[in-house]
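Protocol step 4 of 6.
Sequence for Short-chain dehydrogenase (Brachybacterium faecium) entered exactly as in the expression construct, tag removed. Do not edit the line below.
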Amino acid sequence: MSRTVVVTGAASGIGHATAAQLEAAGDTVIRVDLHEGDVTGDLGDPSSVDRVAAEITERTGGVLDALVANAGVSAPTELSVKINYLGTVRLIEALRPLLAAGRDPRISVTSSAATLQGNDPELVDLLLAGEAEAAIERGAALAAQGPMAGYANYSSSKRAISRWIRRVAPSAEYAGAGIGINAVGPGQVRTGMTKELFASEEGRQQADDAMPTPYNGIADAEHIAAVHVFLVSPANARMTGQVLFADGGFDALRRGDDIWQSL
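Step 5 output, structure tokens:
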């Protein structure tokens, strides 16, 4: 039976591939992007996020079956904080009542294997505490220190959204309402954001040094999309609060075989 699914960042890359796979399976997809889509808006602007949510509510009649919150940027500035965490959480929360009214409601978020490297604990804590203005200020301060320090804006925003997912997943508002929420953590992926990096041997080597992918190398957007499609499907009936690293083995290299803490 056809379901209604919202995909953000759907104009290119992972979002475009996810929307295409969902439509090929017979689902109705509402594509959201900055300039091209069924609904357009800047997810780094709170008022724009609210407008996007209102338009989706109108289009769906207040009933939504799934959300793929894929929109994001890899900017070494506070823009990553605004879109990857603040805008994403705001949109998910705004659409949660629609999902609660849906059939087998599911959410899948694009996180990143970068959650495992280069984070700023202060920025992560500010985001999880809901201190939006302070988090943006912290992000700007990191960006002012240069690209290396600024990278923490991206990795920290992705770590924060991953932790937020695990925090809310078993709650009454999500699990209690039958809403499953998970994330995909890609490693190296061929998208518009990485095209320039992967265009040269030097760039490819730099990427491999930072994030090796021993299993099948660099991914295509379609590979990550397939994970999103499963996570928002009715077949995913028990998994929630998980971050699936579709990263070619980087997580296993980075964290090793024992990631379980003693209770």
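Step 6, annotate. The first strand starts at residue 4 and ends at 8.
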